[in-house]
Design goal:
With 115 residues, the chain is α+β, with helices and mostly antiparallel strands. It is built from four helices and five strands, in the order ββααβααββ. The chain has helices at residues 16-24, 28-42, 64-69, 74-91, and strands spanning 2-4, 9-10, 47-49, 96-99, 108-111. It is globular.
Length: 115
């Protein structure tokens, strides 16, 4: 589940209409591979910053189809990638919180610690 840093639960992807439009341009097989890779990475830690996960150059990576689906527009691809990650975080069983911080582009996600 996904929550804002203030504790409000998120139940829909931001800019959902645009997200759904972009999804139509991305092959489901590629989407599933991206989701699997993001979940694999998320499983490795308790803090993740969205822009640090895919790296700068997506060529030859699982993320390249996002760029292709966005007609090779870097800005649109970054937004779509962010929406995919947001959805992945929403769909996870554990509680995640996010915020935006000046040290990083994108959002930083924190897993709620079990005390």
């Amino acid at each position: 589940m996904l929550f804002t840093i203030e504790g409000e639960q998120i139940t829909k992807v931001a800019y959902e209409r645009k997200f759904n439009e972009r999804l139509l341009m991305l092959n489901k097989k590629h989407y599933d591979l991206i989701v699997d890779e993001l979940n694999r990475i998320i499983d490795t830690g308790d803090v993740h910053t969205s822009s640090w996960i895919p790296g700068h150059n997506w060529m030859g990576t699982v993320y390249e189809p996002i760029w292709e689906a966005c007609r090779r527009n870097d800005e649109e691809a970054a937004k779509f990638y962010g929406q995919i990650l947001y959805k992945v975080m929403m769909d996870r069983s554990e509680d995640w919180y996010f915020g935006s911080y000046p040290h990083a582009k994108g959002k930083t996600y924190f897993r709620r610690s079990e005390e």
